[in-house]
Amino acid sequence: MPWFVKIERGxxxxxxxxxxxPAHRAYVRALIAAGHQxxxxxxxxxxxxxxxxxxxxxxxxxxxxxxxxxIQHQCVHYELHEWCIVEAPD
Length: 90
Known about the structure:
Layout: E1 2-9, H1 14-33, E2 39-43, E3 48-54, H2 58-66, H3 69-72, E4 76-82
Antiparallel strand pairs: 1-3, 1-4, 2-3
């Protein structure tokens, strides 16, 4: 099932955050190479972004998130959510 992590910068200064971004991008590329169909986005003007990825359970999703360098180095606030599609009423 798909999961997403909402990321908000603000815990550390911009220079510290920016120092860990290349490792974060490498981690996302590794997720894609492992077949997770991960996608990431970052909005500098808003100081946040998201990571969308596949995981079989909440525990597996939490393990994936815990290995993200931005989270390991406590550079961001984050929220883990299961991705769900809500159908519009007719």
